[in-house]
Amino acid sequence: MYNLLVKDAARKALLTLPSRDIQRITAAIEALRHNPRPHQAIKLQGFPGAHRLRQGDYRVLYTVDDRARCVVVYRIVHRREAYR
């Protein structure tokens, strides 16, 4: 089991989303504790250890540190703004 850290920016972004999206994204983030690299997660090129998890129109961007067994969610953003 991995430790989960959600950065303040990601937490604030999550609270501004519609309630149905909050529930779905929160469940996906919690699932990262048990499996930090689910089948639908994509490793981001050019960012070591960074992954993207698609949840509807939103993207959860996070890093995985296997040595510390820690997952850090650093950004939750709408898909049109995710890679700017």
Tell me what you see in this structure:
With 84 residues, this protein is α+β, with helices and mostly antiparallel strands. It has one domain (3-81): RelE-like (YaeB-like fold, 2-Layer Sandwich), CATH 3.30.2310.20. 25% of the residues lie in helices and 35% in strands. It has 2 helices and 5 strands, in the order βααββββ. It has helices at residues 8-15, 19-31; strands at residues 3-6, 42-43, 50-55, 58-65, 70-78. Strands 1-5-4-3-2 form a 5-stranded mixed sheet. β4 and β5 form a beta hairpin.
> Termini separation (Å)?
32 Å
- What would you give as the CATH superfamily? RelE-like
Assigned CATH class: Alpha Beta
Count the helices. How many?
2
Q: What is the strand arrangement across the widest sheet? A: 1-5-4-3-2
What name does CATH use for the topology? YaeB-like fold
* Helix-strand pattern: EHHEEEE
